[in-house]
Specification:
Helix content: 40-55%
Structural class: alpha/beta
Order of helices and strands: HEHEHHEEEH
CATH superfamily: CinA-like
Radius of gyration: 15 Å
Strand order of the largest sheet: 2-1-3-4-5
Oligomer: single chain
Shape: globular
CATH architecture: Alpha-Beta Complex
Largest sheet: 5 strands, mixed
Number of helices: 5
Number of strands: 5
Length: 168
Amino acid sequence: MDSTVNKLTELASSAANALKRRGDTIAVSESSMGGLVSAALVAVPGASAYFLGGATIYTHESRKQLLGMDEAALKGIRPATEEYALLCARTIHKKLGSTWALAETGATGPDANPYMDPPGTAWIAIVGIAESGPIEKTLRIGTGSNDRETNMWAFTQEALDFLVETIG
């Protein structure tokens, strides 16, 4: 148990420190990471200063209930795409009023997701307000692995590294 908690804290400490240093806040929408980014950010002491909340959006119903997105909001957009990751990031950013929002969507494995994206692929989107103005960035992840847990941890690490790179 201790090693998992330590790993979460280790993964998120740079991101948490950057958010605290800037006085910024974050909201998170995750899918195939299953809440690991939120857990990692909350594992760092002082999380209440920067973490506003997160949601694991794993089904159509959770997307509708937690993000308030119905099928009309998704017109022309399918899950597990760059556009969908951006939509989720924009939505949770607006709902929680955070400085930053991070969203993830993908396929962890061992098989392709229902949209036939291969295991080990994900999209991360970050939206926020930097000193220079609004920012929207995306990152495509491809691990080449079909191991579900390995991919969940890899996606989490990549997402947190991308957050640090984005917010500085």
